[in-house]
Amino acid sequence: MRRPFARRRRLLFSPMLSLVLTGMVWSLPSAAADGDPGGNPHPAPTHGHAIPADRRVAAFSGSGYRLDYDLAAGTADVAFGGSARIRGMYSQVRTDRTITTRDYAERSCSVVRIHDRFGAGSRITVTHRGRGLPAMKQMFYVYDHCGYFLTEAVLESLHGVTSNLMAPVVVTGTGAVDLGTGGSNRMILMPYDNDSWDDLLTDGSVNGEGTSYEVTAMYDNQSRSGFVFGSVTHEFWKTGISLQGSGNRLDTLRIFGGANSERDTRDLCPHGARVGTVIHSPLIFLGRFADWRRGHELRAREGVGEDLRPYYRPVLASP
Fold this sequence. Notes:
Low-confidence stretches: 1-53, 307-319
Number of helices: 1
Shape: globular
Structural class: mainly beta
Radius of gyration: 20 Å
Mean pLDDT: 79
Strand content: over 45%
Order of helices and strands: EEEEEEEEEEEEEEEEEEEEEEH
Distance between the termini: 80 Å
Helix content: under 10%
Number of strands: 22
Number of domains: 1
């Protein structure tokens, strides 16, 4: 018996659209964007890029970008301005072994409307299940009026799960992160702190490699247009961002909680582990902006909303 919608494998979500595909319920009521934090007050609609017919793809549009999730492969592409600029993004965690979203046999997707401190939007959850593996969820937070999205990875197991390395964003492949512009693209490497006489930051050619901490940018040195990637939550994880590039594009982008380095973070022991039946990675900010400096300011502002009070408890002197 032929499955319903067997020939409609490209799924484009529109306001108040709902459909059922092989037991999965999809819904994404959305609002039209009226501004772009990147500097364009009236962003053009994004129509994505050509998708092979043999892929089961769920498409979600944001303000000036579109996210296409391949449910057959466990990876996502992100298009800005109608072209794929981040290709093959997946998540990776380390428990008693290294697991990625590409390792699972079964995937499902759900969408709910949300309204949180970042604004109104939709939370997209892709759930991965496989024999002998903890359930892994990729959460994408797409907001109606923001030129960026947030993402995190979540592990779940009734028997409990432990991890001291969770990477919600991993991209590998020649030119997998591409600005699509510029002959002098650069990347920011932010130190974890300024101990050991570290520079405040390193601004170098994207045709190199390095590790940034908590935040980074890849940008065109002429136009200032660029990507900004960084952590929004900091209550548990030290977040590292590994970058390696060639040909004015990035071949590797890996954003992970669990950064550990004797030289960079002054750690002599492994990063601590999260333990529980449900554990979360750091929440990660991804966006493209007309001026990358504006993107940095926006990410910093969004991060300030985190409750910092536990870090600043008063210390009382002993009698």
